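wait is this the right file?? whatever heres the structure
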């Protein structure tokens, strides 16, 4: 459709200083509207990608990529399970754990918590909890000493500091001559960690795996499961199935996408919703091209009639105005892509500048877990946005171009 004649005239119409300045204004606003819409869309999606990556990193710094356990929740030979898992080339490390719910009591304060028994020397292979310590060290957890490391929010809720004693109350009961009594055990707080996720900071307490086993009446050497760290966390679902198939019958495998499926599904739905909402802004700007081209067609009735009398076909006339509309859409799309990528990659500079300029703080550290706006540009998103915007702009040119092609020379020249 686009022969040299159509390209030449279409580009000339785009560059020419029109007599009707309002038409030029509409074309310019359409172009800028597409650019601003694309810029906003790329920036918002990049910030959402950054938040998703940041939250995923914080979650996976505390939880394993995959977990192996049995249907009854007890593994009596965890070393065999760990060694067999480590034979897989994609497994970087493994560590046993014991997990159980309990109540923690200090003075008049009581709070529920998840007690997780760990082996400090192995735990560093599967999580970054050792790097999250703000008081004490994982190495201070030694078997038989009954010591705890609490999350920062949990310690604050109980009103304890390092060196205080807390009473741990488990759901298991002890039968005594006085009746059935809950199991109680005194633990000393020897450390505090801050993971940056309220779920862990408020509800997790770490103990040595041997002490946790005695607390929850596990047989010696028995654990709840084995936590694994993988080389590629995005391959966790497939690798978890492979590892479960290699183990004897009765063993199960879970990966991090199952443990936090609702959270990551919600984030993805939010991202999709924002894409749709902001695409509507681009669509509104793109369809402004319809108004601009319709007015151009009306303004160029005489030119169209002369071209038709000189032998131009309706298809050629249509091609001229499609070239003009596509040029507006292409320039707007390119400007938006350049502006969006530039802004998204410099969010960490632009946002602090705006905050200092107006004396505001968008994400207060005492309110939000993440006080800075992270940004991650994904080129798949950028290309999708560019194609969608350009497609909408191209679609918007079809009706005005079709209308121009239907212009009758005799009617157009009647009053000239």
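ok assuming it is, sequence goes like this
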């Amino acid at each position: 459709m686009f022969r040299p004649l159509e390209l030449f005239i279409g580009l000339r119409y785009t560059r020419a200083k029109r007599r009707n300045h309002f038409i030029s204004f509409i074309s310019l606003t359409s172009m800028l509207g597409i650019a601003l819409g694309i810029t906003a869309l790329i920036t918002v999606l990049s910030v959402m990608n950054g938040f998703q990556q940041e939250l995923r990193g914080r979650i996976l710094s505390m939880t394993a990529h995959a977990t192996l356990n049995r249907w009854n929740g007890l593994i009596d030979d965890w070393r065999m399970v760990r060694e067999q898992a480590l034979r897989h080339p994609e497994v970087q490390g493994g560590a046993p754990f014991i997990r159980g719910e309990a109540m923690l009591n200090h003075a008049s304060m009581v709070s529920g918590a998840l007690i997780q028994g760990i082996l400090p020397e192995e735990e560093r292979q599967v999580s970054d909890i050792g790097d999250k310590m703000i008081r004490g060290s994982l190495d201070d957890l030694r078997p038989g000493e009954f010591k705890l490391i609490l999350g920062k929010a949990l310690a604050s809720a109980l009103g304890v500091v390092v060196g205080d004693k807390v009473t741990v109350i488990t759901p298991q009961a002890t039968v005594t001559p006085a009746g059935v009594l809950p199991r109680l055990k005194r633990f000393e707080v020897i450390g505090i960690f801050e993971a940056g996720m309220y779920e862990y900071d408020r509800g997790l307490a770490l103990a040595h795996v041997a002490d946790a086993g005695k607390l929850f009446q596990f047989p010696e050497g028995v654990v709840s499961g084995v936590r694994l760290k993988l080389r590629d966390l995005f391959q966790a679902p497939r690798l978890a199935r492979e590892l479960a198939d290699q183990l004897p019958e009765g063993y199960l495998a879970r990966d991090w996408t199952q443990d936090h499926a609702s959270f990551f599904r919600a984030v993805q739905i939010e991202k999709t919703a924002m894409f749709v909402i902001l695409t509507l802004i681009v669509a509104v700007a793109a369809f402004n091209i319809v108004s601009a081209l319709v007015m151009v067609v009306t303004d160029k009735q005489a030119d169209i009639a002369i071209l038709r009398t000189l032998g131009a076909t309706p298809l050629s006339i249509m091609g001229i105005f499609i070239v003009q509309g596509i040029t507006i859409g292409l320039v707007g799309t390119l400007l938006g892509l350049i502006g969006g990528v530039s802004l998204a990659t410099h969010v960490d500079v632009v946002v602090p500048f705006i905050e200092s300029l107006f004396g505001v703080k968008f994400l207060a550290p005492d309110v939000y877990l993440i006080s800075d706006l992270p940004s991650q540009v994904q080129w798949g998103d950028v290309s999708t946005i560019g194609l969608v915007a350009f497609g909408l702009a191209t679609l918007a040119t079809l009706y005005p171009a079709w209308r121009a092609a239907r212009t009758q020379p005799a009617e157009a020249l009647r009053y000239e």
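The first strand starts at residue 66 and ends at 70. so i think its the right one actually
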